[in-house]
Structures are given as structure tokens and as C-alpha cells.
Amino acid sequence: MLMFRPDGLQEAQTADSVLMVRPVGFAFNDETAATNSFMRAAAAPDLTSRALAEFEGLVRRLDDAGVHVTVLEEQREPDALFPNNWVSFHADGSMVLYPMAAVSRRAERAPERVRALLERCGYIVNDIVDLTEHESHGRYLEGTGSLVLDRAGRHAFASLGPRTDTRALAHFANWRN
């Protein structure tokens, strides 16, 4: 999650903390399924309870492994458990907001709520970098759903497609440099 290094040292490649969203509104999303080949409609009536059980198990395992988990509660949107698509956190204390292709997913963005949660947990958010202006131009960059970040080497890798636009990617790259 947030890897603020007040000593100015290089950003670590991996984090010892994660932000997870409790999947209380877990459901199939017809809008996002059109551009996500991994999505399949599930017929299981207990899908949300199964997702919650898996979530709790993962939180326990991460905690047992020494990874600090910060949980954002009460998100009701179907894909809200994937905050990596709309937000990322960086060693300089920046929180980056990304342009989302699916209109239904944009409702998940809650930067002030996340910032308040992080600050209550002792993290520092120095700046919010907002790339969402690209949505009004039909350009998207869905966070680490679109990007693979080499944090230590300060490189971003992306596969271009309907959720990854070169101009939005350039905006991200220019912010980082």
C-alpha cells in the first residue's frame, strides 16, 4: 500500500501493507465483463458469502505473514473490491487516481474516504494526483489493472487496450518523472 519514505530512500519494490475492500457488494458486472475475459457470470446464490469467507481467510493469512492489512468497509458497488484499478499509492506520499472505462466503476472512487482511513491508520498522503480528466476524452488507464510497476526501477509496463490509453499513460509517466 502506501510506502512513504520520509528519509528519501528509494521506493521498495514490494509493500508490507495492503488496502483491501470487504466484498459486501460482490456481484457480476455486465458492463465490465465486455472487456474482461476473466469474468464469468456465476449462478451460485451464495456468491457474496463465499467471497466474504475467502476475503476473511486472505486477511488472516496476510496478517500471519506479517503483512499489515487496512480494510475499507461498506463498499456496495459490484467491483469495489478492486481498488487497484482506481488508486495507487507511492513512496513520496502520493495517491494517484486513475480514469476508469466503465461508468459503473467510477462510483467506487472515494479518495477522501480512503485518505481519511489511511491517515487514521498512521499513513501519510502528501498529494493526490488526479488523472481522471482523461475519462471525458474517452481515455483510460485503470491503475495497476493496466500497469505493472517496477517501483524500484521507476518503470511502468502496460499492454494497450480499451482500458489502457497511451495519452493517459504518458500523463502518468510525466507525473512520475
How would you summarize this macromolecular structure in one to three sentences?
This protein is 29% helix and 16% strand. The chain has 177 residues and is an alpha/beta fold.
Classify the secondary structure makeup into a structural class.
Answer: alpha/beta
Mean pLDDT: 81
Order of helices and strands: EHHEEEHHEHEEH
Radius of gyration: 16 Å
Q: How many beta-strand segments?
A: 7
Shape: globular
Oligomer: single chain
| N-to-C CA distance | 20 Å
List low-confidence stretches: 1-9
Per DSSP, the total helix count is 6
Main β-sheet, spatial strand arrangement: 3-4-5
Strand count, sense and barrel status of the largest sheet are: 3 strands, mixed
Strand content: 15-25%
User: Helical percent range?
Assistant: 25-40%
Structural account:
The chain has helices at residues 30-33, 47-64, 103-106, 111-120, 143-146, 166-176; strands spanning 17-21, 68-72, 87-89, 94-97, 127-130, 147-150, 155-158. By secondary structure, the protein is of the alpha/beta class. The radius of gyration is 16 Å and the shape is globular.
